[in-house]
Design brief:
The chain is mostly helical. It contains 6 helices and no strands.
Length: about 180
């Protein structure tokens, strides 16, 4: 094997290793981001529940259900009071939405979690999470699974989308030994 081939093989091995490390690091951040997102989601849910409890307390003091209070408030002739009914309804809806998202994420399996996360993603909470996100190395089975997935995906991408097409192109440019003219001795 010539020196040029050894250099190409060493470069290819180095690229494989770098891609493994990059894939592992980048993909292992997904469970960490989802964990930090889940914590922020829980905080938003707690605050929405606190606000809803205030509305329920007002309704109870008036001898009404929350639904009845919302109905009476939204039909009030005073536009400002009517808008307060919309705020109460939106708060109740937000509690339901956030609770469903939290429950779904907490009970998702390793394989379904990324899809559940995307299905229930609240972009405002995601942006807030990203703004203060702190990378970490998760030492869980989930973190390991994501790291391995990242390694395999980047290696597959490199080998199938870059290395294989380049190799085919280089081979297509070289004449095959059978088509080369015979050398005279």
């Amino acid at each position: 094997m010539g020196l040029g081939r050894k250099i190409v093989d060493a470069g290819d091995t180095l690229i494989d290793r770098v891609l493994c490390v990059v894939g592992a690091i980048v993909f292992s951040q997904a469970p960490e981001f989802m964990q930090q997102y889940l914590q922020r989601l829980g905080g938003h849910l707690d605050e929405a529940r606190r606000q809803l409890a205030h509305f329920q307390g007002v309704a109870a003091q008036a001898g009404l259900t929350l639904d009845r209070l919302i109905s009476q408030t939204t039909t009030n002739a005073e536009p400002t009071v009517a808008k307060l009914g919309d705020v109460m309804r939106e708060t109740a809806t937000r509690v339901d939405t956030l609770a469903a998202a939290q429950d779904a994420l907490q009970h998702a399996s390793l394989l379904t979690r990324p899809f559940v996360f995307l299905r229930h993603l609240d972009t405002g909470i995601a942006h807030g999470t990203w703004a203060i996100y702190k990378p970490a190395v998760p030492t869980t089975v989930e973190g390991l699974a994501y790291a391995l997935t990242g390694m395999l995906m980047l290696l597959a991408l490199y080998h199938l989308a870059i290395k294989l097409p380049v190799s085919r192109r280089l081979k297509a440019g070289k004449p095959s030994p059978a088509s080369e003219p015979a050398k005279s001795v």
